[in-house]
């Protein structure tokens, strides 16, 4: 059941140069990575916001400054209405609703998985920390009261290259 106090922020990404095409539109189990993440956020959060290059997506997205996840999270937090935002990158297709709920429940100013900085949960009130011009997400999170949450390593698989996606396909 979706929690009305939570906002889901999907980091759609940009050019995906290492991947060779937009990762958001890559397919796994018959759906794009973007559709998969959007559906997951809908299972957990009443409000969902996608940020990044939205070409070809079946849902609207906010433009970001193209300078990485910090700027994208800042854009999402400026539009969020929930007290806490769960932030999911499009290239982590094995995340689960339970994992996102654990992050949200542990959030003080923020919460990250053991190998962070993404996925994460951040309190909406921390939005000014994301608007400082800092580009490294780990630096922003280090300046906040950030909880560490142990998630199953398998859930944190990251798709950076096409071969990563091929390894996840059944």
Describe this structure in words.
This protein is an alpha/beta fold and 170 residues long. The protein has one domain: Spore Coat Polysaccharide Biosynthesis Protein SpsA, Chain A (Alpha-Beta Complex). Strands 4-1-5-7-6-8 form a six-stranded mixed beta sheet, with helices on both faces. A two-stranded antiparallel ribbon has the order 2-3. Helix 1 packs across helix 3. The two termini are 28 Å apart.
Descriptors:
single chain, 170 residues, alpha/beta, Spore Coat Polysaccharide Biosynthesis Protein SpsA, Chain A, six-stranded mixed sheet, two-stranded antiparallel sheet, globular
The average pLDDT value, as a whole number, equals 91
In the CATH hierarchy, the third-tier topology is known as Spore Coat Polysaccharide Biosynthesis Protein SpsA, Chain A
Number of domains: 1
Overall geometry comes to globular
Total beta-strand segments: 8
Strand content: 15-25%
Task: Please report the first level of CATH classification, the CATH class.
Answer: Alpha Beta
Structural class: alpha/beta
Rg over CA atoms, rounded to whole Å, is 14 Å
Relevant CATH superfamily: Spore Coat Polysaccharide Biosynthesis Protein SpsA, Chain A
SSE topology string: EEEHEHEHEEHHEH
Spans with pLDDT under 50 lasting ≥5 residues? none
- CATH 2nd-level architecture: Alpha-Beta Complex
> How many separate helices?
6
- State the strand order across the main sheet: 4-1-5-7-6-8
Q: What is the CA–CA distance across the termini? A: 28 Å
- Provide the helix percentage: 25-40%
């Amino acid at each position: 059941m979706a929690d009305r106090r939570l906002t889901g922020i999907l980091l759609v990404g940009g050019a995906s140069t290492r991947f060779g095409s937009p990762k958001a539109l890559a397919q796994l189990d018959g759906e794009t990575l973007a559709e998969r993440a959007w559906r997951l956020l809908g299972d957990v959060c009443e409000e969902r916001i996608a940020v990044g290059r939205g070409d070809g997506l079946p849902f609207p997205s906010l433009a970001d400054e193209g300078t990485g996840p910090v700027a994208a999270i800042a854009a999402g937090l400026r539009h969020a209405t929930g007290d806490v935002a769960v932030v999911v990158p499009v290239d982590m297709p094995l995340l689960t609703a339970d994992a996102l709920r654990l992050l949200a429940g542990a959030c003080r100013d923020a919460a990250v998985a053991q190998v962070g900085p993404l996925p994460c949960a951040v309190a909406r009130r921390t939005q000014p920390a994301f608007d400082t011009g800092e580009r490294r997400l780990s630096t922003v999170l280090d300046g906040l009261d950030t909880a560490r949450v142990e998630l199953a390593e398998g859930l944190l698989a990251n798709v950076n290259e096409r071969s990563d996606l091929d390894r996840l396909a059944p």
